[in-house]
């Protein structure tokens, strides 16, 4: 499945959340990551994140897609990050 | 399915923040370690022990290529699916002449049948390759009689030569003439594409072997030796016509790959970085393409088809079901 992760957390925990999310997903721009992920890894990611964030203060959102078949992406301005397999 | 990452830029690959990080001039990129299955290194990439250890823990395979895009070697992490029993079975099938020749024949037959599918496809489209089809069929009939591995390798060579000669008729492109097979380094454009494609396929098969209990050091058609992996060469034979050669046909047919994508070195030709990228994009696309599997009755990608081939081989070695190579249907 394909997941878009958006987070808004206390500054103290931004780095931690980013570091964890980067293990599974590609960084797109500030507070946004995306990528293909397996069910198992998605569960692991959620587990790791819930141990980091403060449930009363922070917010992490996942947009979950079965596939990217019926979607398209538009960009205004510069491309900051995203998925690539050739560097 | 974990992805393949191709590194062309000169830079540094390292472990950072418990994931992978690639840095080169004006480029900083984190690669999600959980999403990476293999890394192909074409550029001047620096790395250290810490990185290799990290790759090993995460079962990530690293292939490296020389300037010509020629396969140089692989960092193959300590085997994760160790199976002494399977190694014994593999060795047994290698040492026993009759068992080895059975597998060797199966591989050559599979390869030849896939070659015939490609040729027949073009024959239907009005290309005059009937004589090549006939020749390949003749050689194919002799495969069953081959008694020795060397005889088999010879037949394999004949089949491939006949097949490559049909390329000129199929492609009808003066830039990409076959002439004769040349290697290390290849002497013309078409040979360069063939070599590069085969290199990529060898490493893709090796990556799949890593996910099974098989040991890549023991091959059957290609004799096991002191220096290299051979099982991946065996299995690659079956898939070359349907993966590598079709990639070449698409790229040349659509006129995507041009003279400018090659550079002449001191001894032969090589693809430029741009050319390699073009080829890899098409090659990856091919591996991702799915077909309806006749037995499994579901869509499987070509990459997974390679793995299924290895599972079949495992079953054969364990004596559960004789190995039947995959033959494309069109």
UniProtKB/TrEMBL annotation, chain A:
It comes from the Bacteria. Its cofactor is Mg(2+). The keyword Membrane does not apply. Keywords: Antiviral defense, Endonuclease, Hydrolase, Magnesium, Metal-binding, Nuclease. Its EC number is 3.1.-.-. GO terms for biological process: defense response to virus; maintenance of CRISPR repeat elements. Pfam families: CRISPR_Cas2. SUPFAM superfamilies: TTP0101/SSO1404-like. Mg(2+) binds at residue 8. InterPro entries: CRISPR_associated_Cas2, Virulence_VapD/CRISPR_Cas2. The keyword Transcription regulation does not apply. Homodimer, forms a heterotetramer with a Cas1 homodimer. Belongs to the CRISPR-associated endoribonuclease Cas2 protein family. CRISPR (clustered regularly interspaced short palindromic repeat), is an adaptive immune system that provides protection against mobile genetic elements (viruses, transposable elements and conjugative plasmids). CRISPR clusters contain sequences complementary to antecedent mobile elements and target invading nucleic acids. CRISPR clusters are transcribed and processed into CRISPR RNA (crRNA). Functions as a ssRNA-specific endoribonuclease. Involved in the integration of spacer DNA into the CRISPR cassette. This is CRISPR-associated endoribonuclease Cas2. It comes from Carboxydothermus hydrogenoformans (strain ATCC BAA-161 / DSM 6008 / Z-2901).
UniProtKB/TrEMBL annotation, chain B:
Gene3D superfamilies: CRISPR-associated endonuclease Cas1, C-terminal domain, CRISPR-associated endonuclease Cas1, N-terminal domain. One of its GO terms (molecular function) is DNA endonuclease activity. Mn(2+) binds at residues 156, 222, 237. The keyword Glycosyltransferase does not apply. One of its GO terms (biological process) is maintenance of CRISPR repeat elements. Keywords: Antiviral defense, DNA-binding, Endonuclease, Hydrolase, Magnesium, Manganese, Metal-binding, Nuclease. Its cofactor is Mg(2+); Mn(2+). Its EC number is 3.1.-.-. It comes from the Bacteria. Signal peptide: none annotated. Belongs to the CRISPR-associated endonuclease Cas1 family. Homodimer, forms a heterotetramer with a Cas2 homodimer. CRISPR (clustered regularly interspaced short palindromic repeat), is an adaptive immune system that provides protection against mobile genetic elements (viruses, transposable elements and conjugative plasmids). CRISPR clusters contain spacers, sequences complementary to antecedent mobile elements, and target invading nucleic acids. CRISPR clusters are transcribed and processed into CRISPR RNA (crRNA). Acts as a dsDNA endonuclease. Involved in the integration of spacer DNA into the CRISPR cassette. This is CRISPR-associated endonuclease Cas1. It comes from Carboxydothermus hydrogenoformans (strain ATCC BAA-161 / DSM 6008 / Z-2901). The gene is cas1.
């Amino acid at each position: 499945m394909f997941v878009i992760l958006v987070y808004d957390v206390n500054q103290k925990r931004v780095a931690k959340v980013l570091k964890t999310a980067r293990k599974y997903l590609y960084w797109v721009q500030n507070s946004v990551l995306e990528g293909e992920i397996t069910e198992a890894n998605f569960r692991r990611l959620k587990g790791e994140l819930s141990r980091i964030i403060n449930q009363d203060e922070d917010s992490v959102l996942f947009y979950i897609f079965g596939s990217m078949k019926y979607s398209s992406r538009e960009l205004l301005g510069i491309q900051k990050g995203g998925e690539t397999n050739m560097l | 399915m974990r992805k393949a990452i191709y590194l062309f830029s000169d830079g540094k690959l390292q472990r950072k923040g418990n994931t992978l990080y690639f840095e080169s001039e004006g480029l900083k990129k984190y690669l999600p370690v959980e999403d990476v299955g293999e890394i192909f290194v074409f550029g001047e990439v620096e790395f250290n022990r810490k990185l290799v250890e990290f790759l090993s823990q995460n079962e990530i395979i690293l292939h490296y290529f020389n300037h010509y895009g020629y396969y140089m070697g692989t960092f193959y992490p300590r085997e994760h699916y160790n199976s002494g029993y399977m190694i014994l079975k593999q060795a047994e099938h290698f040492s026993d002449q009759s068992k080895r020749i059975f597998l060797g024949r199966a591989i050559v037959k599979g390869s030849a049948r896939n070659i015939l599918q490609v040729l027949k496809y073009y024959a239907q489209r009005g290309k005059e390759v009937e004589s090549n089809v006939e020749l390949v069929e003749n050689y194919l009939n002799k495969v069953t009689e081959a008694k020795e591995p060397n005889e088999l390798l010879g037949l394999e060579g004949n089949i491939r030569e006949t097949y490559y000669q049909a390329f000129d008729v199929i492609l009808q492109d003066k830039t990409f003439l076959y002439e004769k097979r040349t290697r290390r380094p290849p002497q013309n454009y078409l040979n360069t594409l063939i070599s590069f494609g085969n290199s990529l396929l060898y490493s893709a098969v090796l990556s799949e072997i890593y996910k099974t209990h098989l040991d890549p050091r023991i091959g059957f058609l290609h004799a096991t030796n002191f220096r290299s992996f051979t099982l991946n060469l065996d299995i690659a034979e079956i898939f070359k016509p349907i993966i590598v050669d079709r990639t070449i046909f698409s790229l040349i047919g659509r006129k995507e790959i041009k003279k400018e994508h090659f550079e002449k070195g001191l001894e032969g030709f090589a693809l430029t970085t741009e050319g390699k990228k073009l080829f890899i994009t098409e090659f990856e696309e091919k591996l991702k393409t799915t077909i309806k599997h006749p037995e499994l009755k579901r869509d499987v990608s070509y990459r997974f088809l390679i793995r299924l081939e290895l599972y079949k081989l495992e079953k054969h070695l364990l004596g559960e079901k004789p190995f039947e190579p995959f033959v494309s249907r069109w």
